What we know:
Function: Involved in the degradation of asparagine-linked glycoproteins. Hydrolyze of N-acetyl-beta-D-glucosamine (1-4)N-acetylglucosamine chitobiose core from the reducing end of the bond, it requires prior cleavage by glycosylasparaginase.
Strand content: 15-25%
Helix content: 25-40%
Number of strands: 15
Number of helices: 9
CATH superfamily: Glycosidases
Largest sheet: 8 strands, parallel, barrel
InterPro entries: Chitinase_II/V-like_cat (IPR011583), Chitinase_insertion_sf (IPR029070), DIAC_cat (IPR047898), GH (IPR017853), GH18_Domain-Containing (IPR051887), Glyco_hydro18_cat (IPR001223)
CATH architecture: Alpha-Beta Barrel
Structural class: alpha/beta
Protein name: Di-N-acetylchitobiase
CATH class: Alpha Beta
Distance between the termini: 42 Å
Radius of gyration: 21 Å
Subcellular location: Lysosome
Shape: globular
GO molecular function: chitin binding; hydrolase activity, acting on glycosyl bonds
Amino acid sequence: MSYFMWLLLSLFLLGGASDNCPCERPELCQPVQKERDFEVFVFDVGGKTWKSYNWSTVTTVAAFGKYDPELMCHAHSMGARLVLKGDVHLADIVDQNNRTAWIKEKVDLAKRQFMDGINLDLEQAVEAESPEYTALTALVKETAEAFHTQIPGSQVSFDVAWSPNCIDKRCYDYISLGKYSDLIFVMSYDEQSQIWGDCIAMANAPLEQTLNGYDQFLKLKIDPKKIVMGIPWYGYDYSCLSLSQEGICSIEKVPFRGAPCSDAAGTQKPYSWIMKQVNSSLTGRLWDSKQKAPYFNYMDNIGQIHQVWYDDPESLCPKANAVMSKGLRGIGMWNGNILDYSSNPVAQQQTAKMWNVLLGC
């Protein structure tokens, strides 16, 4: 097919909407079709920090903030996809008609905004073999079929917890989800969402536990070239009810989906905040050799002791290397906005290291 014929076909499939293209170059409103061998998947929650991303590595941006046509034009100019956020209450789409209507709404929205697919981020508790269980699988299958048909080259991804073993009561049909979606984004963070043992502060994404989760997905025979490793660019700040001589921070009991304790006892903090706070902490950066993660303790302005667990280039390095060794499709993060993109030389160095480690070390 000649380029001219392809362009006419694309315009037809987009319903003529290219007349409203917001880009200076109209061809930038065409869907991105080129596949990259290695995926760097970025969640963006809005604002203009995307202008400071390392666009030499970004392949897909999931727009979880307000739609920004300038971001769409720039992403396309760099050969990167921009995809919608897809979220719906599963009980509402058990009915086939409701499900079809929801999918049509999302496809139409993506076409109007010249976007390249959808990231399905539901994260709802589902019982195995329930109506919601069946509806979720059907939703992914039908969404992929609709997007692939109406937006050539589009991408449909689905977000899953760090393990397929009913984490947070998300008992999905992971084998089918892996079959029907283009990418499975494994959220290897919030791994203390269900704490079954002692209620203590721990790493957001302990290395051994994180890598074991991927082994579990691969045992299901999900194609590794569909799996993207999700890493956290944030940590958790816990208020310590007590701090033992060994440095163990006891935390408040906050139940979650059956577990007596959870990381909901803490507060999520962006990497930019963490890098400033560690400098004025009581301990400076400490390292847990078992969990392979950094942490520190600090005292707030009312005398309360806190313990902060996070990820940095040293803890992320073996995870990024595992992407390569396990033959996964790529890596991504929650989220791209929460580094310090200021002109401060120290911040610039810290931010560059976080982007660079995505490609291994």
